[in-house]
């Protein structure tokens, strides 16, 4: 758009002026930068943080009993590797990987989670940095392995995230991540099991599966926003951005675990988490 002797770049208000570049033939030119939208940070909300840490403090929880063991199995050998932990939270996974890795960089947007990580999960070869998933492209280091535990369903631009990770990995580097299963994130409204009063059977409803985008739910606080993507979108985005998929897994609670803690029965009838291991080409 041209107005007098000024030139403005208007692209859906995504750009803002950061400085004047100069004047050429009486016309002022400006340097623009892309305006970054605020990233939701629920974990620094006091009520959310306390609720989440209360669950993690329980010995028998979904993270410790179901998600973490499968993540570690997929990650495999980390001896001598440089690892990026995306959305590291309070640092449990970073701490485990650091036992054999050369170095671990854990990044997270939450100061509360990072403070907990620095108090409880420290090692000489772990560094924690306040940084959102959306901005990992600002990192200048290279890594052998990138991991992420139950964080990717919070990011809006999944393709940019995967592309940024690809750029940060060395050749043949690995990406291993878990996220909420698309069967869980699909529903816009109903977020709980349906019980048949006659047969006593329980069913998990799936609707709006092919309608990708924002989902809101109450989890400690109202309107926690996540993003639903179909399984094909997740897989094809990874393939399209210079990766080959090595393994796909889905969470499942076994009978031994259920016998110890009956609440995990839901984890036998429904895959709560999706796991993907991919290698950079």
Largest sheet: 7 strands, mixed
Radius of gyration: 22 Å
Percentage of residues in strands: 25-35%
Counting DSSP E segments of at least 2 residues, the number of strands comes to 15
How many distinct helices?
9
Q: For the terminal residues, how far apart are their CA atoms?
A: 42 Å
The protein's oligomeric status is: single chain
- Unreliable stretches covering 5 or more consecutive residues: 1-19, 32-37
What does the overall shape look like? globular
Structural class: alpha/beta
Q: In percent, how helical is the residue content?
A: 25-40%
Overall mean pLDDT stands at 89
Write out the strand line-up for the largest beta sheet, numbering strands in chain order: 7-6-5-8-9-15-14
The run of helices and strands is EEEEHHEHEHEEHEHEEEEHEHHE
Essential attributes:
single chain; seven-stranded mixed β-sheet; two-stranded antiparallel ribbon; alpha/beta; 15 strands; disordered N terminus; 281 residues
Short description:
It contains nine helices and 15 strands. Helix content is 27%, strand content 33%.
């Amino acid at each position: 758009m041209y107005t007098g002797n000024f030139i403005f770049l208007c692209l859906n208000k995504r750009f803002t002026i950061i400085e004047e570049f100069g004047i050429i033939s009486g016309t002022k030119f400006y340097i623009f930068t892309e305006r970054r939208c605020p990233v939701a940070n629920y974990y620094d909300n006091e009520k959310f943080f306390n609720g989440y840490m209360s669950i993690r403090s329980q010995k028998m929880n979904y993270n410790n009993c179901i998600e973490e063991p499968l993540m570690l199995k997929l990650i495999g050998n980390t001896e001598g590797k440089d690892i990026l932990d995306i959305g590291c939270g309070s640092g449990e996974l970073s701490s485990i990987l650091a036992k054999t890795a050369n170095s671990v960089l854990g990044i997270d947007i939450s100061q509360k989670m990072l403070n907990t990580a620095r108090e409880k999960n420290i090692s000489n070869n772990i560094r924690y940095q306040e940084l959102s998933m959306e901005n990992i492209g600002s990192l200048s280091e290279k890594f052998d392995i990138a991991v992420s535990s139950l964080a990717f369903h919070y990011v809006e631009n999944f393709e940019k995230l995967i592309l940024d990770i690809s750029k940060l990995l060395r050749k043949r580097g690995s990406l291993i991540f878990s996220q909420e299963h698309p069967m869980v994130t699909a529903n816009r409204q109903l977020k709980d099991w349906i019980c048949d009063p006659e047969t006593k059977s329980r069913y998990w409803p799936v609707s709006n599966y092919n309608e990708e985008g924002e989902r809101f739910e109450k989890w400690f606080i109202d309107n926690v926003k996540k993003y639903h993507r179909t399984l094909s979108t997740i897989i094809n985005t990874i393939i399209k951005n210079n990766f080959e998929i090595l393994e796909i897994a889905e969470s499942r609670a076994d009978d031994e675990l259920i016998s110890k803690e009956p609440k995990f029965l839901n984890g036998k009838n429904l895959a709560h988490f999706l796991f993907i291991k991919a290698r950079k080409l």
